[in-house]
Predict the structure of DNA-binding transcriptional LysR family regulator.
Amino acid sequence: MLDLEDLQTFVEVADAGGVSPAARRLGVSKSIVSRRLIRVESELGVQLLARTTRGAALTEAGVTFREHAARVCAEIDVARETILPAGDLRGRLRIAAPLSFGPTHLAPVLADLASRHPLLHVHACYSDRFVDIVGEGFDCAVRVGYLSDSNLIARRVGPIHGRLVASPAYIREHGAPETPEGLVSHQALLQGTETWRFIDGDRTIAVHPQGRFKADNGTALAAAAVAGLGIAALPDFLTEKDLASGSLVPVMPQYPLPEAGLFVVRPPGQHPTRKIRALTELLIEHFG
């Protein structure tokens, strides 16, 4: 007879693309994952996964069975949640969170969530890269900034304010831009090839800044700004201490940045699970 835990492990291996990444996601050893897979294949009498040097690829039977297995696991999760006492949450909640914001601001909220729900396993992964939450098997992600269009479902849980900043030394040497258009003659500190937008009365001005220093992490850009390498557009939670100490100063405050947001993003589906709802409500409590 098929075991639910073995089924969930098979789905995890199929989604992660191998035994090792699935073991990391599940928080168990590779040998346990392999044993569970062998049990599922023995029970069904077919090979579901072809082991390769790169990991594991689904066989034709595996592709078909994965769809049914994932649906069964999801239905069981919903059924479990439905019959649990109102306050009880159990199972696992995998959250992708930004590295520049998560460890300092989000970690205490997740600790609070785990304290309130002793049966809930909270797994957080902190990274500033753009995480594919469906492909990488996350229940949800917490994102900071301006959300691009996607098929994911987003819930705004709080405002994020930001501004342009630079060091006093940079301003002394290069001056400060008076208008957004004036930024083209300055060194911008960037994450990639982003567009900066500014509010001018009832209109928005878009600028494509240029610069020689780039980093995929907001804390690193704040450090570069303090070092006098250029002008950065950063959220206040990254610059408030440096602004207070005078290591950074506001630039062009007469053209504010549009208000950004803090969002909980989840894959499309019927309804958010109680686990995600509990996280969302807690975040609104802290940041809303």
